[in-house]
Amino acid sequence: MTIQKRLRLAGLASIGTCTVLAITACGAPAEDSALSDEETDCATYEEFGDFTEERPSVSIYTPITDAEADSYESAWAPFVECTGIQVLYEGSNEFEAQIEVRVSGGDAPDIAAFPQPGLMARYQEEMVPASPELEARASEGWSEDWLQYGSFDGQLYAQPLSANLKSLVWYSPSFFAENSYAVPETWDDLIALSDTIADTDMKPWCAGIDSGDATGWPVTDWVEDMLLRESGGEVYDQWVNHEIPFDDPQIAAAVDKAGSILKNEDYMNGGYGDVSSMTGVSFEEGGLPIASGECAMHRQASFYSAQWPGDIEVGPEGDVFAFHLPGNEADDTPLLGGGEYVAAFRDAPEVDAFRQYLASPLFANARMKTGPWASAHSGSDPANAVDPLMQMTVELFQDPEAEFRFDGSDLMPGDIGSKAFFEQMTEWIKGKSTEDALEAIENAWED
Amino acid sequence: MNLIDQLSKFGVLAIGLAAFVLVVLAVLYVGNIVPHRPKSLTAGMVFLIPTLVLVGIGLVVPAVRTTVLSFGDRRGEGNVGFANYEWIFTDPEILTVVRNSAIWVILTPLLATAVGLLYATIIDKSPFEKLAKTLVFLPMAISFVGAAIIWKFVYDYKQIGNQIGLLNQIVTWIFGEGSAQHWLATPFWNNMFLIVVMVWIQAGFATVVLSAAIKGVPAEITEAARLDGVNAWQMFWKVTIPSIRPAIVVVMVTMSIAALKLFDIVRTMTGGGDGTSVLAYEMYSQSFPGQQTGRGAALAVVLFILVIPIIIYQVRNLRQRKEVR
């Protein structure tokens, strides 16, 4: 073959390959929707307005990527089709850094889903307050406990989106059944169970707190859970708003209560070594010894269900599951959790329409069906949840007696909640005293 | 996301590329039709002005803005005077950061140049020279993050069970069970372990440059020295090194600047924890997760000021060598 012919052939082959790759990458056929007929029927979406003439676009920027992002897009696909509003989704792992760049640079997205209300507070002046209709929907869906984090000066700016529960203890139902251990309903029962297991040759608890530049955050979750149980929601709010000093004795008591498990050499660190080993174990690996039988309990949020290897069954009768981290009394339901808040930076009818849709029970139920997800929306039906863990999460959040508080470190200003608090708690695990660690954080928090 | 949306993105890319080509062609065309008297100012300006404009927008304006921000509060607004700079030089944690950066700037060029020089001298005129050079240069082909991940595994530490970290396994073989250390958490010395990573990456650059310089030493000088009866040690110190001094300086200056800019290794291996943070990393950490724009900007300005002497030295060096020619 001559050179020219060979080059031409190579050129055609590469063009052909590129085209095929492009088509396969972009033209994947839509999967069968998990949504009901009612949810795909356009009549359901008439209340959000008809934009089919102008087909305006609304950009939404979130830290959620990959499979979860796809689940969001499947859930609101009927909304997009029926109202004509083109939702442009953008997910980024660098959300916390990039949102500052975008908002300060005048390139703010139409809608941003903030995983940290503390981060969102910085942009109060640039955000668009919720319209009266949106406020009405939000008040129907969520309790004041939830809405307070999206409000400033008494005005609602952002409604919640998803909800993840942090007050959970992962365990192995099969292991508990084999040894006739009962799921503890009070804190004292939990300690008694830990003592029982510690008497055998297994360390009852395991944990990992390494997380790159966020190392230490699982410890802060422990402290927040303990404060909620020891001192209640009001003190928690004062702490988060810096109305009481960080080294207040009540906070110190909560930290020490967490220490009764976290810094207890008899209890920690199943499968990894001693207490200090948890600084070298990533948070993703922290609970895995449960599946291999080297540890009994691991306190971690509902999103940990994604960490188990594929062959592990997550369920109340399966290999691993989670129970609610108990309060001091059997019917206390203190709930520490997290979620995203939907803020808007552009004042337009289509932006408002989309936010109203996201605040509706219609979306909450649809999204539960397209992937593992939970929200605290009062109109969401737990039966729509995709797995037993999500179902349990929704049921707990809908308990009217529950006392919910958002993760504390996400509410504090960045240099405390995302730096000083994490760093000092890591030092505390490594041996620093409670007083010194809390004092250091208090000194860093000036305002 | 269908094919039509993707095609529009390629369309934007095509327009961008076309615009770039058009601008370059325009500059060349104008440069051509402008009168070409020797040392004509206009011809020079045609090529300089686009560059100056871009440098102005991309470098000068952000530099000025950052300096202004460094006198501001946590949102970069207002004026708090020198409070942020005071904080840098009084807060114990930030003093550690400054200390770490100083260690990096001093040790990295010294070590990398020493390793490169030694390596270049040893492999000079040996049968494996080409292969040896390739091997030492390979780490430069991977990103800093890639290298950091590799070494993070090398330094890995398991308190119980089998070690998966190479270093700890070697230590366990030599010193027995239980001698494994949490290298990256050891106070102060963890900085040295991070520096090792950078030396590993940069040694190839040093080797290649210094090897070329060593080959450039005139044969007459080495022969004359040998006739005078020097041994290998004296040859190295009294003949080779003075002759390749310009190359050594270039290598050391380049590495000093790289060491001051260092971000990826610290972020990937320790996230700035355990006292390993450096200026470039802390600048990011304060500005974004920490939401302290004023302080982050102040750190950036301090970093800039620290680099200036090195750059001045580099420029003077280049000028001197030009004059010598």
Question: Would you kindly provide a written description of the structure presented here, covering whatever features stand out?
Answer:
The complex is a heterodimer of chains A (447) and B (325). By secondary structure, chain A is α/β, with parallel strands linked by helices. Chain A has two domains: 196 residues, Periplasmic binding protein-like II (D-Maltodextrin-Binding Protein, domain 2, 3-Layer(aba) Sandwich), CATH 3.40.190.10; 207 residues, Periplasmic binding protein-like II (D-Maltodextrin-Binding Protein, domain 2, 3-Layer(aba) Sandwich). In chain A, 42% of the residues lie in helices and 13% in strands. In chain A, the strands form three sheets. In chain A, strands 1, 2, 3, 6, 11 and 12 form a six-stranded mixed beta sheet that branches. In chain A, strands 8-9-7-10 form a four-stranded mixed beta sheet. In chain A, α10 crosses α11, α10 crosses α12 and α16 packs antiparallel against α17. By secondary structure, chain B is mainly alpha-helical. In chain B, α2 packs antiparallel against α14, α3 packs across α14 and α11 runs antiparallel to α14. Chains A and B meet through α1, α4 and α16 of A and α1 and α13 of B.
Short structural summary:
With 447 residues, chain A is α/β, with parallel strands linked by helices. Chain A is built from 17 helices and twelve strands.
